[in-house]
Specification:
This protein has 140 residues and is mainly α. It has 5 helices and no strands.
Length: 140
């Protein structure tokens, strides 16, 4: 396995662990979301919304961790890549369309993580393709 893919796997584990922490925080105290993310409309954040956000974040965390474990699984790889696109679109829409979030560090951090992750995973696709081609040559 290439060094880049090993770094990508480590990145995915780190992002997954951070997301699991955010999940716990969302279930423990919903003011976390109004103070860090949805600062432009904190009154819209309630316990139900925080728990829903927590479940969504937990699902993303599990998918990303599983991809780190089995990075050669193409279907799982694309689903993981989609989770980052989904997060990017979600936070951008909250800032630019719905105006429930402001560009604070609490929003910039997930935007940067999603952007860097998308870039890394798109580069990782090239490495996976090279690995697959070299394995096919060895078989023939």
């Amino acid at each position: 396995m290439s060094r880049f893919l090993n770094v990508l796997r480590s990145w995915l584990v780190m992002v997954s662990v951070i997301a699991a922490g955010n999940t716990l925080q969302s279930f423990r105290d919903h003011s976390f979301l109004s103070e860090k993310l949805y600062t432009a409309s904190p009154g819209l954040v309630n316990g139900l919304q925080a728990r829903t956000f927590g479940v969504w974040t937990l699902l993303s965390s599990v998918i990303r961790c599983l991809c780190a474990i089995d990075i050669r699984n193409r279907t799982l790889y694309y689903i993981t890549l989609f989770t980052f696109f989904l997060a990017l679109v979600h936070f951008l829409s909250e800032v630019l369309i719905y105006h429930t979030a402001a560009l604070t560090i609490g929003v910039m951090a997930p935007l940067m993580v999603a952007s860097f992750s998308i870039l890394g995973m798109l580069i990782g696709l090239q490495y996976l393709e090279v690995e697959a081609l070299s394995q096919n040559k060895k078989k023939n």
